[in-house]
Amino acid sequence: MTDAHGGIRGWFAGRKGVWSRLRFTSLRLRLVVVFGLVALTAAVSASGIAYWLNREAVLTRTQDAVLRDFQQEMQNRAGALPEHPSQDELQHTAGQMANSSQRFSVLLVAESADGKAVYGTSGALDGFSLREVPRSLQKAVNKEQKVDSANKYPYHLYWQRVVDDGTPYLVAGSQVINGGATGYMLKSLEPEAKDLNSLAWSLGIATALALVGSALLAQAAATTVLKPVHRLGVAARRLGEGRLDTRLRVSGTDELADLSRTFNLAAEALEKRVADMAGRDEASRRFVADMSHELRTPLTAITAVTEILEDELEAESGSVDPMIEPAVRLVVSETRRLNDLVENLMEVTRFDAGTARLVLDDVDVADQITACIDARAWLDAVDLDAERGIHARLDPRRLDVIMANLIGNALKHGGSPVRVSVRMAGERGDEVVIAVRDHGPGIPEDILPHVFDRFYKASASRPRSDGSGLGLSIATENARIHGGELTAANSPDGGAVFTLRLPRDISELTEEPGAVDGPAGAEGEIR
């Protein structure tokens, strides 16, 4: 039973694949349809013209032969009748006339000596009669024409095609030239009609074969044309996936071969350009990493000196000259800022190099956020809405970095109170959502797409700020390596809202659970 169901599913899958390839938007189907329509139009036109020409030729040849024979019989046999023949004479002559080579029925009409109409027919009593002759034809046959130089005879031969019970007939009539009996002829055209029907069937079959042949030719042409196009599409997709060494095999000298050559040249140029850019990018990252490491050594010494100077400033002994006290405080502040910038640059280089690792632990999210706020003395400025007991397995240090950047950014640009809410989400409650909202003016719409860009400044006229321009970028990278995301938006009630979504357990994302990273800076980002 399983094999049967599998076979049925395979059959339907195969048919689905065929129909997907033959959808009307498919170039292959359109080529077949166009070829078929052109072939059908040409075949129908040719068949129609051939049928019409053959029909006229067959009917004209038969008609001329019959009329010629009838006219000859009228002159030879009917012309030999006396002026007022008897019925027997008419009957005998009609029978002789009907025995001609064309085998038609004959009706002779004459006037007897006492002025009565006398009829003679080649058939039985129920044979060809005057009722079967159209009145218009009788009128034309009996009408006397004016004799002149252009018209030598008062009476002429007239004919007409009629259909009786689906059978075509030729009806003709004429009078004897020198006067006398009037004769009518009835000839069945059924053999010719059958021949013409056979011809029509033959032409129809030929049209159908032409249509099938055109479809096969269209399929072959489409395959010839579309196979290189398909290969080009596959190569383009591979190139889009980053396989820059993709090349097409070129054969021929037609337009498709030129297109393949152009694609290969473009792919080669792109590969070279990407390789150059990757080399420059790698050199740039290496420079930043080396510079950051090199700066740490002198910064360590400078930081130690500034700490001593800061202690002297805080001491009551007044050992620092009041004249240089502002300069000392500026040095202390800028040294801290430079130290944060170097740490952030080192963190960014770890993200770029792919060496950033998670150190996971089971934490209570509310306790972790509370510790972050308390460590930075933000308890009075932050309203925390989080129930305890929402546990997650994540890197607590990196969560601290994210929250410090988001809350610090909200306090700097939005102002207090800053509201932080924590809730569970997902169909099975397997996701933690942390929202940080301020009560400031919000983020301008043109700036909103760039808030997570590195070194982005909201105003070009104020390029200098207390932050390094890397805080939100580092926060979103930390969210990403947790398998989550960080988004920014404006609240309908005013203010900006940053939303952090993290899975509650990301153990499977950790490659080296015991890896330990260096410190990651936390700062407020400039909008």
Write out key terms for the chains shown:
3 domains, alpha+beta, Heat Shock Protein 90, Helix Hairpins, disordered C terminus, five-stranded antiparallel sheet, rod-shaped, 14% strand, single chain, 51% helix, 12 strands, 527 residues, Beta-Lactamase, five-stranded mixed sheet
Architecture blueprint of SSEs:
Layout lengths: L1 H20 L5 H50 L10 H12 L6 E7 L5 E5 L13 H8 L15 E7 L2 E9 L6 E7 L1 H51 L14 H60 L10 H29 L7 E4 H11 L6 E4 L5 E4 L1 H18 L4 E8 L5 E7 L33 H11 L3 E6 L5 E8 L24
Parallel strand pairs: 7-9
Antiparallel strand pairs: 1-2, 1-5, 3-4, 4-5, 6-8, 9-10, 10-12, 11-12
Helix pairs in contact: 2-5, 5-6, 6-7, 8-9, 9-10
Briefly say what this structure is.
Helices cover 51% and strands 14% of the residues. By secondary structure, the chain is an alpha+beta fold.
Task: Explain the overall architecture.
- With 527 residues, this protein is an alpha+beta fold.
- It has 3 domains: 27-198, 2-Layer Sandwich (Beta-Lactamase); 244-356, Helix Hairpins, CATH 1.10.287; 357-459 and 467-508, Histidine kinase-like ATPase, C-terminal domain (Heat Shock Protein 90), CATH 3.30.565.
- It is built from 10 helices and 12 strands.
- It has helices at residues 2-21, 27-76, 87-98, 135-142, 190-240, 255-314, 325-353, 365-375, 396-413, 471-481; strands at residues 105-111, 117-121, 158-164, 167-175, 182-188, 361-364, 382-385, 391-394, 418-425, 431-437, 485-490, 496-503.
- Strands 2-1-5-4-3 form a 5-stranded antiparallel beta sheet. Strands 7-9-10-12-11 form a 5-stranded mixed beta sheet.
- Helix 2 packs antiparallel against helix 5 (190-240) and helix 9 runs antiparallel to helix 10 (471-481).
- It is rod-shaped, with a radius of gyration of 53 Å.
- The protein starts with a helix and ends in a 24-residue tail after the last strand.
